[in-house]
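User: dTDP-4-amino-4,6-dideoxygalactose transaminase. Structure?
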Amino acid sequence: MIDFNIAPHTGNEVKYIQEAIASGKICGDGTFTKKCSQWMKEHFYTNQAFLTTSCTHALEMAAVLSGVKPGDEVILPSYTFVSTADAFVQRGASLVFVDIRPDTMNLDETLIEDAITEKTKAIVPVHYAGVACEMDTIMNIAKRHHLKVVEDAAQGFASYYKGKSLGTIGDFGCLSFHETKNLSMGEGGALFFQNNAYQEKAEILREKGTDRSKFFRGQIDKYTWQDYGSSYLPSDLNAAYLWAQLEMADDIQNDRMATWNFYNEALKPLADKELIEQPFIPKDCIHNAHMYYIKLPNLESRSDFIHYLREHGVMSVFHYIPLHSAPAGKKYGRFFGEDRYTTKESERLVRLPMYYQLSQADKEYVVKTIFDYFNR
Ligand SMILES: *Cc1c(COP(=O)(O)O)cnc(C)c1O
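Assistant: Predicted structure:
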């Protein structure tokens, strides 16, 4: 059986976790957490990078820091993971789902402006498959309407839009290090922002509402409860795992890219015959090979395809059930305008096995099985 995903493991994870244990400090903001944040600041040119317990939690922090309040509206795609929505629902916001572009599966930037009302507070673009949304347009709309932009860059580690790292373009950027993402720490994420004015608020929010971060820097001699907060800092044990991955980030990314390119090249004849559709990468985007998906003609053919692959030992998966059609989506939001592509395209998409060190033989078997399916 060829798995759909296997959590990345590069070799030094256990060694670094042992080092964390030996240091006698395994709580948050230890040596490895600092190394990881510093790495991201240097590689992604972000002023601020806070390691968090998940991308969901990074989104929650971004929602609080954006000042989203009950009654506010937030614009987001319906084709996304639930966390994109949850973080804003938690603040009492109401969700306004805007349709996606069929080519990238990202928020259709040309539809956003019409969805803005006097209640709109933020736009939340999701960079699906690590392929950037049309950020220049989105930032321009946000600027003219005084809206915050929170990038859901959960899948966007080391992806770029016009040379900028995803997660560093909007007011806030949220990354994920869940085991299904390119780099992992089991559960974890990061919050990026460029405006240093948010630093103190972010530190307090992340540290249970206290100014303990200032205390550790020696800037104050005791810490107290300053504001609303929660606990968004991961254990240094998890950060130690991530550090081993960051050190090998190029290797992980190159390996995934080789798989992505292999699939893309090998499956091209099927796309030429219009049996499938392949991913589209706009020219301003450098992607990170987060996923390889293809599209079948419709829901029925996709189910048949997934079933055939599974029968022949290949795990492929689909996602997402559009949020606006889910019980919570109906309760907390509404779809703006016409659902031309969200439902239709989501029903056609299927993701092929993609993980670090997927073997050449396995990739070839996946492709062969797909050809067999179409040659039956
Ligand atoms: C994975 C993912 C998340 C959630 O990340 P966690 O780290 O598991 O909280 C949010 N949004 C998108 C688009 C994702 O793919």
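The radius of gyration is 21 Å. The pocket of pyridoxal-5'-phosphate is lined by residues 54-56, 80-81, 83-84, 126, 152, 154-155, 176, 178, 189 (CB under 6 Å).
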